[in-house]
Amino acid sequence: MRFIEVFEFWPFLDTVVSLTAAFIFGTAVGAERQYRQRTAGLRTNVLVAVGAAAFVDLSMAITGPTEAVRVISYVVSGVGFLGAGAIMREGMNVRGLNTAATLWCAAAIGACAGADMIAHAALVTLFVIAGNTLLRPLVNTINRIPLNEEASEATYEVTVTVRDNDLPRLRPLVADMLEKAHYPAGDLDVVDRGENLAEIVATLVNTAVNAAEMDAVARRIDSLPGVIHASWSISTKD
């Protein structure tokens, strides 16, 4: 049997350590994504990390470190195509960029583990989790800072998630509440989210808003019967 001829215990044990490390670190990254209910959650990040580790470890065992670099480049490009599938463009908004970037980082973690650089894989894992958690409050704070109208152009949107059967009732109600709050909507679009869910996306006429007032408006809309979630955001054009 070919297996008996090529099997060596210590190299096999090295593979076990590499794949186990990739599995653990991928789980750490994926658990945070799963908690946030992202498209690529726990299993996807683990599979990307373990798959990348397996390819790199296999190339290390067969051809050595030199050719392993070539395999790593293929892993990077391959995961890039996978991440592209998580990116969706909806009008002016692009969703899934952070999910795609996290998958890319999961592949980097797996590549480090497959190359027996376990400490490096742990360090990348730490930075990825920190980027997805510790920076979130800072991002929210920056997004809520009112922009200088003369310095930039900003588009303010209120997004309301509802169930399909509540949409006819809530759409005019959301528009009326924004009008009464002196933040009228120039456009009121509906985005189908599947699973009987839809999003009412209201693009405000105002070029600048008060963050505290918008927070209060979002809370009032969120308290309406039938509303699953309401939030507001800023997007800019350079």
Largest sheet: 4 strands, antiparallel
What's the domain count? Answer: 2
Strand residues, percent: 15-25%
- End-to-end C-alpha gap: 64 Å
Give the overall shape: elongated
| Strand neighbour order, sheet with most strands | 4-5-3-6
What does this structure look like?
The chain has 238 residues and is of the alpha+beta class. It is 60% helix and 19% strand. The protein folds into 2 domains: 2-133, no CATH class; 150-237, 2-Layer Sandwich (Alpha-Beta Plaits), CATH 3.30.70. The protein has helices at residues 2-6, 9-35, 42-62, 65-84, 97-114, 118-133, 135-143, 167-180, 211-222, and strands spanning 88-90, 93-95, 153-163, 185-194, 197-204, 227-237. α3 packs antiparallel against α4 (65-84), α3 (42-62) packs parallel to α5 and α5 packs antiparallel against α6 (118-133). The relative contact order is 0.11.
What can be said about this structure in brief?
With 238 residues, the chain is of the alpha+beta class. The chain has 9 helices and 6 strands, in the order ααααββαααβαββαβ.
